[in-house]
Every structure is written in structure tokens, then in C-alpha cells.
Design a protein that fits this description.
2 copies of one chain form a homodimer.
Chain A: E1 2-4, H1 6-19, H2 24-39, H3 50-58, E2 69-74, E3 77-81, H4 87-105, E4 107-115, H5 121-129, E5 133-139, E6 160-164, E7 172-176, H6 183-192, E8 201-202, E9 208-209, E10 220-221, H7 232-248, E11 276-284, H8 291-306, H9 322-334, E12 336-338, H10 340-352
Parallel strand pairs in A: 3-4
Antiparallel strand pairs in A: 1-12, 2-3, 4-11, 5-6, 5-11, 6-7, 8-9, 8-10
């Protein structure tokens, strides 16, 4: 484990994106989005993925100089073609379109085709909060999740983020995979050679399993709820809604045909659409009630929930976004810890372009 | 257990709403919404609740002749004051406003204050499907659910419904409480004197419990995910988002202050808003891509998911909405079974107004 200042990782990552051929502006955006994951403690979605993006670019699956454009629109909606660009760049572009539409007609809703992984959903949803809007972001992803009653991997971990402004209190920021546990949590267990709790994964026959490596043995992640008796059909429905809004609505590739993140995995045959899909929403608070009224009541909501009586052995009730914001406050000053395999991987990635600095 | 033809329950329920003072039009709407739950097999939300609505009306908490009106709007949004009307009437009014806005600018989003329980969320979401739109409906409800790490009941079962049109295939209709199990499922266990599975409820100290009557002993329902290790913070976030969109955005009463459904439970003190809140959305498919293209791909999505390999011992993968649609196909012809306590309760309700017919 080594700890790096944010500024050092920022410069390194920026240099890699520039070396891939990204414009100054796009490299800046991509770096800010990618590192927001490390700052917020979502280590699986930050610089640990940089080499993955580079390999997709090397494989010709990511276009470093995309012509991102609106291909269909109404006053409150748009569909965007990401031109196979970095999702880290396509997503903020699309979210800005949603925000601009909300300024005009109250809300904006944007579905995106032909994109790639967009980092953490929460970054994009939070863009709306600065504008006194509620922000939403979701994306489909390559299939790792078996629907209820099935053993076949049909859906990605398909995250949903919703960011809601408050007044004196910090924003409410929910950002979660629609599975019981995100894949990143399994990866942490794999590194520790530890078992997964029952309810996270199943084996190739659909039996409960604690094997953190089960996905490599034809197992699957489980939808939020774990099993039918505990509501996995609800997690399956949520993941499906994300898939449909992100990909069927936009013309991206959906379900088991979503393109894989690892560049060594062949692209699915007979893909029904182009690339990964995302979906973004922005709702202007004052399209519903005066922003100051809303924020006053959000402060009251947050204060009341923080004061809810804790269970025995629990310190306090958290508001969605609390842990990530606290982590960001620490890491922006104290630096970002990276495990040795990630540091090694980053150095190898840098050496491809003769970039040092780590 | 007795089985009643749909038409008989329809006439009876219509007569009760008329006797409460509802207009012909409102009684028709309320009856159609309420009985759609019985038809679709969601027995907890159908005529079993009729007496509850009557008691709220007797207690002066439901206004049978509401002046439902838009109090704020933009091209894509509206806030509606339900004037303490039946949610069964207020909700279709609000959903129609969302649909009308979507016709104009692509999408429509409506938050509602000062309403009451609106029946099943799926009915309202499905209104959009007939217009080649995606429909969404959600509502807050009286607090039965403890947030992760808490023993205090702060949220309702706060359901979410999303209905998505397809082509030759029937619509995708997700409609679920944001808890591990809906309260209606506990009520069924109570009648059978049976235990609940671990993960549905907790006791007053926050310990896991199988007692189906635990809510009467200061216990609470658990958010979807059951416990922190299995993602209950995600269910808590979902329930919170429903509460905020439905009530904080509209000016309804939120969180632990949401008004109770049982008329004998006193209203919370210092309510921060008016009545229950709902939130509705309608997105015109062709605001994103041609409706025929979308429906073709939805058919492909549904066909592919139906063909997903079943787990051992499971027959097939279901598409959200399949069980309810199949039940509706059966019950519209074969009638609606009601357990004896519900029949008795309905007869008592009828006798209040000298209505027979059961």
C-alpha cells in the first residue's frame, strides 16, 4: 500500500489520457471524473481502471477524439451518440444537455448510445446539484448478474445515482449498484482470499455460494434482494429498468449483449445496438416549488433522519452520501492509498507512453 | 373464502364511493383503480382496504368532493394539490397531467401534495403505456420501515412502479415496495399464524426476528436488502428517494410525519406538509427514438430474457408484470376470491349506507 497526493495522481492520469490522444479539455474531464471515485472511496472505479480504458483504446473500442452529438431531441429529451468515446467524457456532456433542457422547460432527460464505462454514476448526478436541480445518472454494463430463477448472466451491475440538493446540510447522494454487492467488493475479497457472505453470488447451478471467485466458474452476481424470498425480483426489475432506459431507449446494446469492459473479452455477436448506454435526468427544483422552501424541508428531512434512534451497537443513522463525502474530505488532504498491484499496473500503463511521475 | 364476479364487486364498491358523496365520475375512477389490485392479485391493496377509506372519510381525513388543481407548473412539470381527496382519484388526475405534458414537450413530471393512499402504483404507471409512453408512479406512506442502523420507523413501504410498452409482447410492469417484503405479505402470515422469513422484520432493539406480529411490538419492516451486508442501505436510499420526490418536492408530509392509513391512529404532530405525496412521470417513447424501433427492441429484450437459462428446479425466468397479468386474465373471468374476514368487513361497510349486493 502506498499513498499518493491527489495532485500527483491527477497529473499522471491526465498525461495518460493526453497520450491516448484526448484533447486537453477531454483529458481534464476524464481525469476529474475518474479520480472522483478514488477521492470518494470507491476504489474499484478510480485509477485502478485506468489501464482497462487504455486497453480498450488499444483494441480500437474507445475513440479518443469522439464527435459526441445529439441525434434526436424534444424540448425535454435528447438522445446522444457518444461516438465510442470515453464514457468519462460522454457522460458529463450528456448530463450538461439534461441540465440545459431543465433550465428551459423544467426537466431534461438524456439517453446515450455508443458509449463506454462512465466512472461513478454519482459524479454525473452531482453536476445537477450545483444548479439547484435534482440529478440522476444510470448506466448499463456488461452482464454479470443472473435474473431471479436463472443461472445465466443477463444484466450488468447497472448502478443508479440520485443527487438531491439541501440547504445548510450537504446534498443527499445515493449511488449504488442494483445488485446485493458491487463487483468491486468481490474483487477486494479475492485479493484477501476471503469468502463472500451468502446472498452475494450463486454458482453455475443457481445454488447459494460463498466463493468470491465464483464468477470465473460460471457463477453470477445476485440482484439486490439476493433471493426470491428476500425480494431479488425487485433488484432484477431495477437492473432491467436501468438497462432499458440506458440502452433500449437510446439504441445502445442491452442485456447480455452489453459490451464487456475487459478488452480481452470478445465483443458479443449480433449486438442489437451500439456500445454501452447511459441515462441522465435533471429536474429543476423550482419547477416544483421555490428552491429555498425545498432546501429548508430537505434540511429538516436530513436532520430528522440523522436523529432517528440507532439500533443497539450502531452509532447513528447515515444519510446517503455521508461516507463518500467524509472520505473525500480526508483524501483530498491526506492523499489516496493504492494497493501495490494497482501501483504496479499504473506504472506499466505509464511506461507505454513513457510517462513517469509515480 | 368466497369468490365474487368482478362485476358484482365493482357495483358494490361503486355504490359505497357514491354513498360517500363521490361524483359519478370519481366513483367510477376510484372503483376501477381499487379493483385493479384485486384483479392483479395484489389482494392487500384492493377491496380489502375499502373500509379503511370509508373510516378515513368518516374521520374527516378524506374529502369526497375535492377540488384537485395544479398549483405550480412549467412545460414539463406540475405540482398538484389533491385537496385531501381519495388518492384513487387524485393519482389518475395527476398521471393524466404528466401524460399531457409529455405530449407537448416529450416528458411530464408531477408531484402531488395533500392526497391519500392511491391503490396500486402499477395502475397509474400503466396509464402511460396506452399512449406509447413509459409511465412511472410512486408514493410515500405511513412509517413502518426502519432505516439501516436504526430501530425507528421513518419511512413507508414507498412503492415504485415503472411500466414500459413493448410491441407484440405485453408491457414490462415493475411495481414493488422498496422493502424486502410488503406489509400485505406480513398480514397474510398473521392470518395463518405463521412465521416470517428472517430478513423481513426486526424487533424493537434492531435484532433479526421471524415474528409476523412484530410491528405491533415496536418492531419494523426492513428496507430491500434486509441488512447492511446485503444492501439494506440501497433499499433505504430507494425508499428515501420516493419520500423526497413524492412529498418534499410537492409540499406533502414526509418521513415519520406521513399521515397514517388507519383512521384510529392519531395524525402526527407538527406535520411539515399536507397529506400524503405522490410522484408521477411520463416519457414519450418517440421523444427518444421511433416508437416502432423501440417496441421491436423491447420485444427482443423480453424474448431474450424469457429464454435465459433457468436455475435447477425453476421453471422459467419471468418478466416483471407477468404474474399480475396472468392473474388478471384468470380473475376477470373466474372471479375474485375474498377471505371471510374481508367479506364480513365489506358487508359491514355496505350496511353503513344500506348497500347490499354481497
Amino acid at each position: 500500500m502506498q499513498v499518493f497526493p491527489y495532485s500527483q495522481l491527477y497529473q499522471f492520469t491526465f498525461d495518460v489520457f493526453k497520450a491516448m490522444g484526448c484533447s486537453e479539455k477531454d483529458a481534464t474531464t476524464a481525469t476529474a471524473v475518474l479520480l472522483s471515485a478514488d477521492l470518494r472511496g470507491i476504489d474499484s472505479h478510480g485509477v485502478a481502471r485506468l489501464s482497462g480504458y487504455v486497453r480498450l483504446w488499444q483494441a480500437g473500442r474507445i475513440n479518443a477524439t469522439p464527435d459526441i452529438r445529439i441525434i434526436h431531441e424534444t424540448p425535454s429529451t435528447a438522445v446522444i451518440d457518444g461516438d465510442a468515446g470515453l464514457g468519462l467524457v460522454v457522460a458529463p456532456f450528456a448530463m450538461q444537455v439534461a441540465i440545459d433542457k431543465a433550465k428551459q422547460v423544467g426537466t431534461g432527460w438524456v439517453s446515450v448510445q455508443n458509449s463506454n464505462h462512465f466512472g461513478i454514476a454519482g459524479y454525473h448526478a452531482l453536476m445537477a446539484v450545483k444548479e439547484d436541480m435534482i440529478g440522476m445518472a444510470m448506466t448499463n454494463a456488461s452482464a454479470l448478474v443472473a435474473p431471479t430463477f436463472s443461472v445465466e448472466k443477463m444484466l450488468g451491475t447497472n448502478p443508479i445515482a440520485v443527487a438531491i440538493p439541501a440547504g445548510k446540510e450537504p446534498a443527499f447522494v445515493a449511488d449504488f449498484a442494483t445488485t446485493t454487492a458491487a463487483n468491486g467488493k468481490l474483487e477486494i475479497l479475492q485479493r484477501k482470499n476471503a469468502n463472500a457472505p451468502l446472498g452475494w453470488v450463486q454458482d453455475e447451478l443457481g445454488n447459494a455460494s460463498t466463493d468470491a471467485n465464483i464468477l470465473k466458474k460460471k457463477g453470477a452476481l445476485l440482484p439486490l434482494g439476493s433471493d426470491r424470498e428476500h425480494g431479488s425480483h425487485k433488484g432484477y426489475a431495477l437492473g432491467s429498468i436501468v438497462d432499458i432506459f440506458s440502452a433500449v431507449l437510446s439504441g445502445a446494446s442491452y442485456g447480455p449483449w452489453a459490451p464487456p469492459f475487459p478488452a480481452y473479452v470478445p465483443m458479443p455477436e449480433n449486438m442489437p445496438g451500439k456500445g454501452l448506454g447511459h441515462f441522465f435526468g435533471a429536474m429543476r427544483i423550482d419547477a416544483f416549488r421555490p428552491a429555498e422552501d425545498f432546501k429548508h424541508h430537505m434540511d429538516n428531512w436530513i436532520t430528522r433522519f440523522r436523529a432517528a434512534q440507532p439500533a443497539e451497537g450502531c452509532e447513528k443513522v447515515l444519510i446517503p452520501g455521508d461516507p463518500e463525502r467524509e472520505m473525500e474530505g480526508i483524501r483530498i488532504h491526506s492523499g489516496i492509498p493504492l494497493v501495490d498491484p494497482v501501483v504496479e499496473d499504473l506504472k506499466n500503463t505509464g511506461s507505454l507512453f513513457d510517462i513517469k511521475g509515480l
